[in-house]
Specification:
742 residues; alpha/beta; Rossmann fold; Arc Repressor Mutant, subunit A; 5 domains; seven-stranded parallel β-sheet; six-stranded parallel β-sheet; 32 helices; 17 strands; globular; disordered N terminus; binds adenosine-5'-diphosphate
């Protein structure tokens, strides 16, 4: 038997291409797979849709023997096993759903080492028979899917996951690999401890989901707003999350009255009903589910194109999890949160009430803190992608995400934002940081109430300074200032507003603030599409896509597997874009490996040929260059400039150094690189000598030419890692602009 040590990644890539039809690995997949190949314990944290399964599936095929995979839900296991079989990979599951007969056959095959992967439920570990079943079969690795279930800090704690320690007893020499999408540090630490991982490779991916467009709208007419989103996604799948079961029942009924085939899902419904809904959703017989958060982990449909929250989720972790169910196939999807400040008030009351009835109140500040965090997020004026990854401790260097309400221009900027911010901050200064949002807001709005009068706060010069705004606006703005770091809300049970250094910089006019009016989205406006949405449909014949979808549905029904086990939407779109006429042409399509080509290729080719014939469409379209556009061809965006960009561009135009721009704008030096690159792309200045000296410019350009100029990293390496990425990006942006001029 070959040793599991030091298998090269080449062998792995060949396996990935053969079985899955993918030709590149996603970020961190290579390192995660290498850890498995090296037999080193690992913890892999990738966002939903990041491709965690492939991290253990592909090495399992390369290593031979039988990799044990522990997965929390029987439904998920079954789908995974079906998916692997469709890709020509032998896998099986051992769980309570098997009949006695099936179990005996499966066990015999397990003993004979027939499977690359054996999926087991955590409960199954109780039976203690795994070592016996696998006594004569090499077990190269153990994979634990949804590993956060082991932590009671997580949102999905399952006590039976504690059984996992048995695996270590059964197979002491085998490396253990844990996978989760949960981003919090606490849960990660807990996983390492609970699973007793030994010197694990800890790989934490980028949490941004660029294909998701986040939108937060003030809630004014729930049903109408939900229908507006559904109408924009005719024929596509979506989930509508509600806070209470009652809301689920009512909304689902109203939607059905309007002819929308929406199913309710919550813990109060019978098991049979819930299971039926899950299956109908997976097999595309039903596209819309209205649910509480009970509808969660079991959903593996990868083409969910929208998620709507009609009420505020409990925390940003929940929000990230729930919105994360959209667009797992990497294609564009939309997440709309209908926001109302009233939700926060009632959730606060609910939480405080249940705390008063509980013996242990220690959790209260943390739960309320989570609520404040998401409230601030919803009211914020910082790009949603940036704010969300920032919450999980990651940087977001792009100046615009081109995929949230704030960056797509759904909202309106407040004129003279700095002056408004100064009024708010002065008020906090006057009351000496001893009061919370409600009190400060009351003073600014000039409210004639007892709590303000009895402290003499109606005599302050700031009293009534913002009386023309609405309560809601002022509250939004306070949170927006907090979100931009120029005001602090304490985290005790009665949070107060206090100033920090940045507040004083704003008050002295040394720092800018962006404030937006979230409620000013034009009625009936069709929101702009995100860039991902535009790009992913480019060249796709939508009629053909629909025909292929119907074929997929039919095949899936015949085989009783979920549709995505047959092909993902990405594959269907690529088929509808490139329209291959031969099996060889089809093999080059994303997501079509050898087994699926043999099994499904001809049926799909026939449908493509018939459609092309009928509509006179050209077949065998040349695929775009596989490496994508060179950096020089990636052009400036047409998105409108933000006020921040306008302000910074004016400073760059004067040729000021980054240090000077940092001093004048109050922005950290580290955040300016992206703005400068955006400026260079946008305005195409003749020279960037103010920021990059001539010899460096020449060297970067030469390295870019030499490496083909498609990615930054090879340029960085060719320069012996001596020139930073920021400079490389700047030179490339400038050279691209110059090339475009000619
Ligand atoms: P996760 O478990 O992290 O949520 P999945 O494992 O379900 O994500 O992967 C999401 C989708 O991406 C699946 O359809 C999967 O087959 C696909 N995928 C995974 N790795 C790659 C890759 N390297 N190239 C293309 N598609 C991939």
């Amino acid at each position: 038997m070959s040793s599991p040590i030091a298998q090269p990644l080449d062998a792995l890539m060949a396996v990935v291409a053969r079985h899955w039809g993918y030709h590149e690995l996603r970020p961190l997949q290579d390192q995660a797979m290498q850890a498995t190949l090296d037999g080193r314990d690992s913890l892999v944290v990738l966002p939903t849709g990041g491709g965690k399964s492939l991290c253990y599936q592909a090495p399992a095929v390369v290593l031979g023997g039988t990799t044990i995979v522990v997965s929390p839900l029987i439904a998920l296991m079954k789908d995974q096993v079906d998916g692997l079989r469709a890709c020509g990979v032998a896998a099986a599951q051992l769980d309570s759903s098997l009949t006695a007969n099936n179990r005996a056959t499966t066990e015999a095959e397990v003993r004979a080492g027939r499977f690359h992967m054996l999926f087991v439920s955590p409960e199954r570990l109780l039976q203690n028979d795994l070592p016996r079943l696998l006594a004569n079969v090499p077990v190269p690795a153990i994979a634990i899917d949804e590993a956060h279930c082991i932590s009671h800090w997580g949102h999905d704690f399952r006590p039976e996951y504690r059984m996992m320690s048995r695996l270590r007893e059964f197979f002491p020499q085998v490396s253990v690999h844990a996978y989760t999408a949960t981003a919090t540090e606490q849960v990660r630490r807990d996983i390492v401890t609970q699973l007793a991982l030994r010197d694990p490779a800890v790989l934490v991916g980028n949490f941004d989901r660029p294909n998701l467009t986040y939108r937060i709208w003030p809630r004014n007419d729930t049903l109408k707003q939900v229908c507006e989103v559904i109408d924009r996604h005719t024929g596509e799948a979506g989930i509508v999350y509600c806070m209470r079961r009652k809301d689920v029942d009512e909304l689902a009924a109203s939607l059905r009255e309007r002819g929308v085939n929406a199913r309710p899902y919550h813990a109060g419904l019978t098991n049979e009903l819930r299971q039926a809904t899950q299956e109908e959703f997976a097999s595309e017989r039903c596209d819309i589910v209205v649910a509480t958060i009970a509808f969660g982990m079991g959903i593996d449909r990868s083409n969910v194109r929208f998620v709507i929250h009609i009420a505020l989720p409990k925390s940003l972790e929940h929000y990230q999890q729930e919105t994360g169910r959209a667009g797992r196939d990497g294609l564009e999807a939309e997440c709309v949160l209908l926001y109302s400040g009233g939700d926060v008030v009632s959730m606060r009351a609910m939480i405080t009430k249940s705390a008063s009835e509980a013996e242990d109140r220690s959790f209260l500040p943390s739960v309320l803190g989570h609520l404040d965090d998401i409230d601030r997020y919803a009211r914020g004026a910082v790009c949603r992608h940036k704010a969300l990854v920032g919450y999980f401790g990651q940087d977001y260097p792009e100046a615009s995400c081109k995929a949230c309400d704030l960056c797509l221009g759904d909202t309106e900027d407040v004129p003279n934002a700095v002056v408004v911010a100064q009024k708010i901050l002065s008020c906090v200064a006057r009351v000496k940081g001893s009061f919370g949002v409600v009190h400060v807001l009351g003073i600014l709005r000039g409210k004639n109430v007892d709590t303000i009068r009895k402290r003499g706060h109606d005599q302050l010069t700031v009293f009534g300074l913002l009386k023309d705004a609405t309560d809601n606006d002022v509250r939004d703005w306070i949170y927006q200032i907090i979100g931009q770091g120029a005001l602090v809300q304490t985290t005790d049970e009665f949070p107060k507003l206090v100033l920090n250094d940045a507040s004083w910089e704003v008050m002295r006019g040394k720092r800018t603030i962006r404030l937006v009016q979230l409620a000013r989205r034009g009625k009936g406006d069709r929101p702009q599409k995100s860039e991902a949405a535009i790009v992913s449909w480019e060249g796709v014949d939508e009629g053909l896509f629909e025909v292929l979808r119907q074929l997929r549905k039919k095949v899936a029904a015949e085989r009783q597997v979920p549709s995505y086990v047959i092909f993902s939407d990405t594959t269907l779109r690529e088929l509808a874009r490139l329209r291959p006429s031969t099996l060889a042409g089809m093999r080059a399509i994303y997501g079509i490996g050898e087994a699926k080509l043999r099994d499904l290729g001809q049926a799909f080719l026939d449908v493509i040929a018939a459609h092309c014939n009928e509509f006179g469409l050209k077949a065998d379209i040349e695929p775009p260059k596989p490496v994508g556009p060179t950096l020089f061809e990636q052009q400036a965006t047409t998105a409108p400039l933000t006020s921040r960009q306008l302000e910074l561009f004016a400073l760059f135009r004067q040729g000021l150094s980054l240090e000077e721009v940092s001093r004048r704008s109050g922005l950290a030096r580290s955040t300016l690189g992206d703005y400068l690159a955006a400026y260079v792309r946008h305005e195409r200045p003749d020279s960037i000598a103010a920021w990059v000296d001539q010899p460096t410019y020449g060297r970067v350009l030469a390295a870019a030419m030499q490496t083909g100029g498609t990615r930054l990293k090879p340029i960085f390496l060719a320069l012996g890692e001596a020139v930073d990425y920021e400079t490389i990006r700047l030179v490339v942006a400038h050279a691209a602009g110059q090339a475009g001029e000619r």
